[in-house]
Specification:
- There is one protein chain.
- The chain is elongated.
- The longest helix has 26 residues.
- The protein is built from 5 helices and 5 strands.
- Strand 2 and strand 3 form a beta hairpin.
- The protein starts with 10 loop residues before the first helix and ends in a 31-residue tail after the last helix.
- By secondary structure, the chain is α+β, with helices and mostly antiparallel strands.
- 24% of the residues lie in helices and 11% in strands.
- The strands form 2 sheets. A 3-stranded antiparallel sheet has the order 2-3-5. The chain has a two-stranded antiparallel sheet with strand order 1-4.
Length: 196
């Protein structure tokens, strides 16, 4: 760089030849070093670690236990939702993606139960406020399900039955519920049975 005029480049810098060769040298060194390590590992030398490449989706990294994945509603022992339709999650949701309609519970000790509990995952920002605000611990984000999609906006609306069908993730973080839920499913369509 010309010191008198810092914005001007020298002839060598304008040609970029030295920088291109330096970049090629660095790339070549990394390439052959990784290839050598992979060759050693393929030959049976377990101490040689090659470049870290995860073959997703066949191979997955372990998930953090604090990962927020797809929502699920927790059931009571009698199978009914633990949710008491207090509307705390619906109120605190910054994306306004939760819709609850409350009704009376047949058990007089339980004041209310949701007649309808929908989450629009197309709008959800996975902030976890709904989980934090729930006084009954009725909603959780521990299914381990990260791959869900739909071909329509309505397909991203998960109903109460679908949320109740989800199971918590296994100890290794892999989902216990069927994954993925078909992308072409329609709202209200039956939920696939749990995978073995």
């Amino acid at each position: 760089m010309d010191r008198r005029h810092p914005s001007r480049m020298t002839l060598r810098q304008r040609l970029y030849l030295v920088e291109v060769l330096a970049g090629l040298r660095l790339t070549g060194v990394r390439f052959f070093a990784n290839m050598w390590r992979h060759t050693l590992r393929a030959a049976g030398f377990k101490g040689a670690a090659g470049a870290v490449t995860i073959q997703y989706p066949d191979e997955r990294r372990p998930y953090s236990p604090r990962l927020r994945s797809l929502h699920r509603l927790v059931r009571r022992e009698d199978g009914s939702p633990r949710c008491v339709a207090c509307m705390m999650c619906e109120t605190i949701c910054p994306a306004r993606c939760i819709y609850i309609v409350a009704t009376e519970h047949p058990n007089p000790e339980i004041e209310k139960v949701p007649a309808r509990f929908d989450i629009d995952l197309g709008r959800c920002v996975f902030c976890g406020y709904c989980v934090e605000a729930c006084p009954e611990d009725a909603i959780r984000m521990d299914t381990g399900i990260l791959e869900f999609a739909s071909y329509s906006r309505l397909g991203m609306v998960y109903t109460m039955e679908m949320l109740l069908a989800h199971e918590p993730a296994r100890p290794d973080g892999t989902p216990a519920s069927p994954v993925p839920i078909p992308a072409d499913r329609l709202p209200g369509a039956p939920v696939p049975s749990a995978a073995a």
